[in-house]
Amino acid sequence: MEFISSMFKMCNNKKKLLLTVCGILAFTIPHFTLYSGQSNPTFLLQSDGHSYVLRKKPPGRLLPGAHKVDREYTVQKALFSAGFPVPQPLLYCSDAEIIGTEFYVMEHAEGRIFRDMRLPGVSAAERTALYVCAAETLAKLHSIDLATLGLVGYGKGAGYCKRQVLTWTKQYKASAHKEIPAMDQLSDWLMKNLPLNDSDISLVHGDFRIDNLIFHPTEVILLDWELSTTGHPLSECDSVHLVDPNLRSCCNAGFPSVKDLISVYCHCRGIPPSIPELNFFVALSFFKLAAIAQGVYARSLLGNASAPNAAEFGESVEPLAKVGLDVACRSVSLTHSQQLASLQLSSSAETFIYSIYHEHSPQRWVTPPIIEDLKVKARAAGLWNLFLPAVSGLSQLDYAHIAEETGCCVFAPDVFNCQAPDTGNMEVLHMFGSEEQKRVWLEPLLRGDIKSCFCMTEPDVASSDATNMECSLEKDGDHYIITGRKWWSSGKCVCVCMVFPCFRHGQHSMILVPMDMPGVKRIRPLTVFGQDDAVHGGHLEIAFENVRVPASNIILGEGRGFEIAQGRLGPGRLHHCMRAVGLAETALQLLCQRAAKRQAFGKKLYQHEVVAHWIAECRISIEQTRLLTLSAAHALDTQGNKVARKQIAMIKVAAGRMACKVVDCSIQVHGGAGLSSDFPLAHMYSYARSLRLADGPDEVHLSSIAGMELRDQLKRARARL
Ligand SMILES: Cc1cc2nc3c(=O)[nH]c(=O)nc-3n(C[C@H](O)[C@H](O)[C@H](O)COP(=O)(O)OP(=O)(O)OC[C@H]3O[C@@H](n4cnc5c(N)ncnc54)[C@H](O)[C@@H]3O)c2cc1C
Q: The Acyl-CoA dehydrogenase/oxidase C-terminal domain covers which part of the protein (predicted)?
């Protein structure tokens, strides 16, 4: 500090020290080091065991508006006062006579700086963590209120993207040494494709890169505020991805995907996880890099560039502009759906779809084209009908792992033609259908050409007791006449419907009913916690008014419905349970992210013991349920449906309860946000909760588990005798 006060005095006395920066530093300070960099020369100053950093304008003739160290100092001061992690600024001196140009001094911040974006020498997990921290830091910066910072007039406000294109075009032209057509074309394209909403404003860093971050054990410090201004925050989102597409192949382990980083960023800012104008911003970024490279090269020609390799920068201008143009051309007609197509299915893709589907699409009953596109890809890749061992060659145990993955994303089962209730219906037709039924119904279902529903539950009777069924089936020559009412018929009932009506003498039958038959009436869609589940076809109430179907539509034969139902429900329940495990994993992931980010009463949420215990209990429940489910899958594979019944009933109860508990904890940790549509948790909860009823309520399964357990105990007791 003594050093700083003497610097202060020197600046205030306005001593005329016509010395070069190196001269004065060598003369005044015990030790100094010139950091490399292309912009404002930066020096490490060491005095009395304390380290400082000095940044100054470069010497010589400079481009107007560039190298404004006073702005750097101002913004850093405001950020430091607001608690944002930047090195503490200590003094600013505008008098160019002191060391040749104006300068400022700040504290030296400790930590790691990675010059190489690939982050060599760190583990995959650490690499992921570092990039996630970078995305979080950026989101934190963009979330700060400008008024709180006292920086309302710092930039020019709305119209940032347009200004950026104009400014960098001007900067580039001022330093251009030859014609580069790609630069002119890119500038034109950017001007013609400005984002519609160019009035979104926050403090932007302007040069956000991994090597401008200092990774300190407790915080990430952001450096180099020379290009900071107020502008469109999303303009910096390409930076978290790091634009070099070769990066991932160089450094395969732990490098997060664009969508993951964008998802982290959006979650931190509490905004929907979609950036429709991303390609504009990436193209703009390349344009800026190219213009900066041109400026560095121009300074090297004038002899006032600060880096020794500045002359090499001239070579990179055209390639950078061409990559920018390439990105620009690819994005001309980029729609939400196309962006989504480039995403792999994941929980973040799911929330992305949510934002498109539920908030933006007026046609939510229609399958989005993106799902159809993904289906084509999945089918071409052989990832189709994976649930059916006879078709996929996978065991139930194999498929259980896949079902867990698809449970993370609400749309994934549809993409692979593995969605309920079609899966169960296909199983029925595969196991019990006649050759004709297989041709007419099973084959189109396997191809994904038609959809089905399963109609068992009735509004007027307690349907968990199948003997209550009232829907009737009467033979009339070579036809059957169906009369009754069903509800909670989930799925897209566009073509085939399974009716489970009560037949003579309390026996049940199952019959195929085309939904366009006269007398089939869709009464209304039901909602689950107020949501209509439109994208899955919803849950319909359907009336069958003297519906006449050919007798050949009966499956297996009259009175064989119960037999069929037993065969149908085993694997189907297993799939539901594994999907519930995947869903719970996603909910716990969200919980942990939130708990690590939010702070209440002086500490992060996860540091409150009750939250830490929820995390532990959720993990225990998930692992227990997964193992129980895998064990049931193994039993089904090796011992068949009948022997596996008890285990299947057990997981049916365990999975629904576990998923409800985990999602509920996650909602609680998210606070109000957990119930909003900004997160998928509310929808997840409605799915998890319905698992405790759909395919039979918990109580019915518990009764049958108890019955089977008592029988097993009896058998064991007899065996001991
Ligand atoms: C989202 C969702 C999707 C569904 N999809 C389908 C579908 O595609 N096709 C279809 O046919 N149905 C579907 N259902 C309906 C579901 O299978 C039934 O709601 C369920 O079987 C219970 O029948 P119920 O509603 O008639 O309840 P009821 O039979 O009236 O039972 C009500 C309650 O009584 C209690 N109870 C019942 N039996 C016992 C017992 N033995 N011991 C103790 N308590 C008992 C339980 O608490 C039970 O929850 C769906 C339901 C939901 C919520």
A: 559-706
Q: Residue 459 CA: which ligand 1 atom is closest?
A: 26
Strands 496-499 and 452-455: parallel
pTM of the predicted model as reported, rounded to 2 decimal places: 0.58
Mean pLDDT of 512-538: 88
Please state, in angstroms and rounded to a whole number, the distance separating the CA atoms of residues 93 and 310.
27
Q: Measure CA 441 to chain center.
A: 37
C-alpha 444/C-alpha 385 separation (Å) is 12
Out of 457, 500, 533, 536, mutate this one to test ligand 1's pocket (max ligand atoms within 8 Å of CB): namely 457
Tell me the CA–centroid distance for residue 685 and ligand 1, in Å. 17
Specify which residues 44 forms β-bridges with: 33, 53
CA of 508 to the centre of ligand 1 (A): 18
Atom 51, ligand 1: which residue's CA is nearest? 694
Express each pLDDT in 615-664 by its tens digit. Answer: 999 999 999 999 999 999 999 999 988 899 999 999 999 999 999 999 99
Rounded to whole angstroms, how far apart are CA atoms 220 and 132?
Answer: 11
709 membership: H or E segment, kind and range: helix 698-720
Q: How far apart are CA 169 and CA 284, in angstroms?
A: 11
| Contact status, residue 485 vs residue 471, Cβ threshold 8 Å | yes
Distance CA(263)–CA(252), nearest Å, equals 20
Residue 653 CA to ligand 1 center (angstroms) comes to 13
- Residues 6 or more apart from 128 whose CB is under 8 A from it? 254, 255, 256
ipTM value of the model? 0.98
Q: For residue 273, what are the β-bridge partners?
A: none
